[in-house]
Automatic annotation (TrEMBL):
The lineage of its organism: Bacteria, Candidatus Schekmaniibacteriota. It comes from the Bacteria. Signal peptide: none annotated. One of its GO terms (molecular function) is endonuclease activity. It comes from Candidatus Schekmanbacteria bacterium RBG_13_48_7. Residues 19-169 form the HD Cas3-type domain. This is CRISPR-associated endonuclease Cas3.
């Protein structure tokens, strides 16, 4: 099975939000949040919009959607996914590893993995990638910087990259 077919098969198995009997895939949740960010931009006052567009140019809406959507990329990690053992089983069946002491804070995972994803997949400059990553990692109110994590095999990072590239091809 080719890597892209494998990823397409697995990409919706990562949960982002879950209740007792169902889950919302992380990818879908991230897209939902990106769309909401764009909608919130649209209802801002002309003054605020003018200021944002003067800072970020014509790509303000798409850029804001993109950055905001990435807020939960850290949920694509063994420590987060194992929080729901039942939902982790399909990932285990696809040979995703779940190290015993994997980082469970998805903000820390984002601050650790997102800079390289932004640089490699989106050609983002290193300093900007680091700033964006720290801001997104703090979306629960805590700056969750982490320079090393227990995060499983490279398959996890490949999945995060695949999700990023599918949101913004």
């Amino acid at each position: 099975m080719s890597k892209s077919i494998f990823i397409d098969e697995v990409i919706f198995r990562f949960w982002g939000k879950a209740s007792v009997d169902k889950y919302h895939p992380a990818l879908c949740h991230m897209i939902d949040v990106g769309i909401m960010a764009n909608e919130l931009l649209e209802v801002q006052t002309p003054r605020i919009k003018k200021r944002l567009y003067s800072l970020f140019g014509d790509s303000t809406g798409s850029g804001l959607s993109f950055i905001t959507a990435l807020h939960d990329i850290g949920k694509i990690s063994p420590g987060f996914q194992i929080k729901r053992q039942d939902l982790a089983q399909p990932l285990k069946a696809h040979n995703f590893d779940f190290p015993r002491f994997a980082e469970t804070n998805h903000g820390k995972i984002a601050s650790y993995c997102l800079p390289s994803i932004l640089q490699e997949e989106m050609n983002c400059p290193e300093d900007l990638a680091s700033i964006i990553s720290l801001i997104l990692a703090a979306h629960h109110g805590v700056f969750a910087y982490c320079d090393t994590v227990i995060d499983g095999t490279p398959r996890w990072n490949e999945s995060r990259k695949a999700i990023t590239s599918r949101m913004f091809p």
